[in-house]
Model the fold of this input.
Amino acid sequence: MLFSLLLLAVGVTLLFFAGDIFVKGAVGLAENLGISPLIIGLTVVAFGTSAPELFTSVQAALSGAPGLAVGNVVGSNIANVLLVLGVPALIYPVISNEKGLRRNLVAMLGTTAVFMWMLAGGVITRLEGAALFAGLCAFIAWQIYDARSSGAPENHDFHDDIGEAPHDRKRVIIYLVAGVVGLPIAAQLTVAGAVRIAESFGVSDAAIGLTIVAIGTSLPELATSVAAAIKRQSTMALGNIVGSNIFNIACIMGLTALITPVAVDPRIISVDMWVMLGASLALALLGFLRLPAGKAVGGAMLAAFAGYIATVF
Done:
């Protein structure tokens, strides 16, 4: 059991560092190629920050643990709202006043509804995976078009989220290679540890994906949100969570299902996808009504998350 926990801890930690290095290398390459910062922020950074979850889900599906793959996505979307928004709300009120937030909330709810319909079928097929990923590409193209047509600055600053990227060609290559090599190794360790823990507790791999793995892969977003709340700069938190939830479904589940069809654990269909919907609706309510998420909301979200985790086990 101790070895399994160590495997999982090392895997999640390596996912964090390998993912961070990979994003910085990809951004450095994009900047060297003269790609607009606006495009980099909407594509390279968005895809790169989803790399840890993507590698974990693909590895889980290929390793015969499909419940872990689906649980990672569903659990991450629940954790993004109840945990990643709940904790910073206790520190400083999160205000939902980003431009275009309501439109993106509609996209998130639509993506969630389509995903739930696919989950209810019991298997997410390659065709459904292709549809999810195609929807993501259309959403990004729309975002780029809208940003440019509305006169959004091309010097969009995304470095607050990722830090400084390397520009020297050798460093860029080293970062990219380290990320590409480190991510699959980290995913293997994470999946191996998670499956061993599931066997030790006598629970399904879906339960571990919904909880331990989902929380572990959401830690970077949580750290970013808490840091922003401490600096009293938490106005972007809602928008980041909405974008992350769309990417989790359309990118991670879409690409995973494209590689191999993914079977869905019955518990996810009967319980967890409805919790995901409830969390998404709570987020939409805050966004549409422009309600600030303060200590009361944050406390309620964390209590709901603790209760949900208890039901999984």
